[in-house]
Amino acid sequence: MALKECDDLRLQRKQALTACCMAAAAESDPQLQPARRAAMLMDCLAVLRAAHPAADAAQWGMGEFRRALRGPLAPLLPAGSESGDGFGALCLFDEDGLVRDALQDLCREHLVPQAALEWHWPWARVRAEQEERRLYEILRRLEPQEYRRARALLAENPAGPVRVLRRAWDQLWMRFDFFEAVSDWPWCHLDGWWYPCPKCRWPMRVVRRGGEVEVRCEAHRAHGVHYRLGLEPATTGAAPLLVGTGKGAEAVVGLPASTEHLALSRPVWRYGVLPTLLELELRDELQRLDHVHVQMWPGELRPDEYDLRITVAPPGRRAMNLRVDAKAWESVEALACALLEREPQPYALTIVLPDHQDHERHYLQERLSGRRIRVTTVSRLIARVRQACGAAR
Ligand SMILES: [Zn+2]
């Protein structure tokens, strides 16, 4: 297939994906007025039709569109655009009709900006990659020491009462304008309270499933960070109590969802906080090993060049040197595109994904062929280093 044709198909596939994600967002927003929801769905349908060849577009009426949204996406994606990206099998709603987590991230990562959709979703003007770049450009302007301080703060203080945040971020506070009021985020509110995830400290999502209320971290649900609302009524003036339902559900206390409580914007959490946590997890695991030296954000030219440098030098064995970058994108296909758009780096780089993306690492590796990039996961990298330094597995 000609390259141009292939690019067009890839673009149309993303356009259809954007329309489906936006439509799912509109369908699942309980606060939308029916007339507004209908207008949003009409615009999504128009974008979807435009992504299909004219002959196929006619088959999509509103009823067909809404029905198809409940199943795997394959029929909604333009014919001929099939690829190994996994989107054909992707479902935006679960069996209870609830929208999947990270829908907004998925959408932002594949976003094809469309005037019709931007009117409804102001954030749909900016692609994830641009947001990630904006964050790192601001970080890059900092002195190396401040840069390291800011990265650590991303992990330690991503949300909380404004006075606590201001004290922690101190001199960086005015230069880091990525905080938003938790009161503006209804998706994390439970009777006027919000709950920080015990792992990333960012607000957890509140989901109403039938008569039950579930509270969970979108990124750490797979680590067992999920709760249900306790049966006992809350004491007057106190947050409702949550009961842990997963192995990572440490006790959490609700905080008021007021304008006095702030959290880092969603893209900064996704592309700044989550990778930083992965890197710190790697560091903590690896620096306990003998003959392993880990440097955080060392940068030979700039501190943001790559995130970790791991040196393994066991006596009598071959030394190993790794430059590592952690990535926490929802879509590895979008991550591949973003990495391919960048200048190739002059050294071998290891990209680390969270463990739950293990099944996608081969696909990413293949998409990056020709680059000096090796794709792995947190657990695999730890196992590899343990082996290199002769530690028991
Ligand atoms: Zn979390």
General description of the model:
The model has no long low-confidence stretch (mean pLDDT 90). The protein has 13 helices and 14 strands. The strands form four sheets. The chain has a five-stranded mixed beta sheet with strand order 10-11-12-13-14. A hairpin with a 7-residue loop joins strand 11 (308-312) and strand 12. It has three domains: 3-126, no CATH class; 157-264, no CATH class; 266-388, no CATH class. 38% of the residues lie in helices and 15% in strands. By secondary structure, it is of the alpha+beta class. The structure holds zinc ion (ZN). Zinc ion (ZN) is lined by residues 197, 199-200, 202, 217, 219-220, 225.
Task: For the structure shown, list the relevant keywords.
single chain; 393 residues; alpha+beta; 3 domains; five-stranded mixed beta sheet; four-stranded antiparallel beta sheet; 14 strands; 38% helix; binds zinc ion
Compact overview of the structure:
With 393 residues, the chain is of the alpha+beta class.
Secondary structure topology:
Elements lengths: L2 H25 L6 H18 L2 H4 L4 H8 L33 H8 L4 H4 L9 H13 L3 H13 L2 E3 H8 L9 E3 L11 E2 L10 E5 L2 E5 L9 E4 L12 E3 L10 E2 L4 E4 L1 H21 L5 E5 L11 E5 L7 E7 L5 H10 L7 E5 L7 H7 L5 E5 H11 L5
Parallel strand pairs: 12-13, 13-14
Antiparallel strand pairs: 1-9, 2-9, 3-8, 4-5, 5-6, 6-7, 10-11, 11-12
Helix pairs in contact: 1-2, 1-5, 7-10, 8-10, 10-13, 11-12
